[in-house]
Design brief:
This protein has 284 residues and is α/β, with parallel strands linked by helices. It is built from 8 helices and 11 strands.
Length: 284
Amino acid sequence: MKIRSGTDGILPGQQRRRDRILAHLPEPVPVRGTHAASAAGRNAPMFETDGVTLPASDYNDFAEAYEAANETGLFNAYYDRPAMLDLAGDVSGRRILDAGCGSGPLTAALRAKGAVVTGFDVSSAMIDMARKRLGEDADLHVADLSKPLPFADAQFDDVVSSLVLHYLEDWSGPLAELRRVLKPGGRVILSTMHPAGYAITYPEADYFAVTKYSEDYVMDGKTVWLTMWHRPLHAMSDAFADAGFRIVSISEPPPAPDTPVELLPPDKGSGRFMCFLYFVLESV
């Protein structure tokens, strides 16, 4: 297993994150996608253990706002997508499943590199936007990763899944489905919330417990609540092994070389920061 690291700073994504690590970053910046966090008027995060039932994130409610933020922001355009493409490597001629494709920016980038890409997302609004981006003939589906997928066994060479798994409580079923649709020896390339960020932001919480929580973000002027599941690193690796994958690499990449300097944390000379965690898995 190869470990790729490059972290010397922290990116908070919610007002509490700013309060915890104020000495590192002077302004609050988001941890999920391109969510533009507001410096004032933030609500406290909510935990399932607080006695409230947290709703699942419904991207149909804010698909357009998310897409607008997703196109040019630091965390998607200059961090997550470049990292996913770098880990994927040469994909020319490979059949790839984009699991949780959203409005299709990663799908489009993979197609531009010569891959044959099928995409699906649980949000019908996101799939509508992906079809506008990719064309009516694009192979796109509305499907739920937590349920059986509408694809044949051993259909794909690779699966990419960008910032999806942290929305799911159970990883066993989804990972089993991804392994089923992969050819023998196929890869899963995925990004998820960095578990260390949760520990830094919520030091009073139990890092080792799989925990449901919600945070508010402002995207394109609209405040939305995102409900996610924190999962410690060992639980991630256990889930991968139980599903029949081996970890080929773990990566904490830097942002893309062409990232506009004004988007980077001003007090980080290297431009590196803690944000998402990346895995390349191989079906065994």
